[in-house]
Amino acid sequence: MTSDRNESSLPPSYFDDMYEKNHDPWEFRSRWYEERKRALTLAALPKPTYRNAFEPGCSIGVLTEALATRCNRVLATDVADSALASARTRLADVAGVELRRWALGDTWPDERFDLIVISEVGYYLDLHALRTACDDAVDHAEFGATVVFVHWRHPVADYPMTGDEVHAVAHSTGGLVPLARYSDEDVIIDVFVVGHGMPTSVARAGGLV
């Protein structure tokens, strides 16, 4: 990490300030980059449906809405009250979604998930907090669960880590077995299976090979 970059986890006030200035500060609803990234994320999921998904850092709920089309239940969280208020409005008629105020780095919910989506939130944590969060993800995932990391690759001075650094930590986490990766200049997506050994490909799971 470079010396001119923030090296501490970002506090909740950072996000409160962002949403005070703009209800959709990352333009999830209007940028093609965001729409394309959501499509890539959904396409990367190896199973057609999931029972119980966890999405930390849901912001205004745009990805949450997409995940709900593939999941019986989605527990989506954010640290910013304003973001959660927007998400509640957006998702009011979407079945199976629970919204909760929670920050990655807090004590995890006392349940297990078969899908965990860490999208654009890992680099808000410092290295120690991120390692803990990755371990917590494994501890709160069912055996064989899907864990997906999705991050912007360009450095941001405010963030203690880059997207590539976040994904390097994920790859070093015990219990996360790599299944698939997509990357380009802007975004990196890594899909892991919780367990050990060689994960089963989509084609093998479907009896095609």
TrEMBL record:
Domain of life: Bacteria
This protein's UniProt keywords: Methyltransferase, Transferase
GO BP terms: methylation; oligosaccharide biosynthetic process
Keyword Methyltransferase applies: yes
Pfam family, one: NodS
GO molecular function: S-adenosylmethionine-dependent methyltransferase activity
InterPro entries: SAM-dependent_MTases_sf, SAM-MeTfrase_NodS-like
Keyword Iron: no
SUPFAM superfamilies in alphabetical order: S-adenosyl-L-methionine-dependent methyltransferases
Descriptive protein name: Methyltransferase domain-containing protein
Organism: Antrihabitans stalagmiti
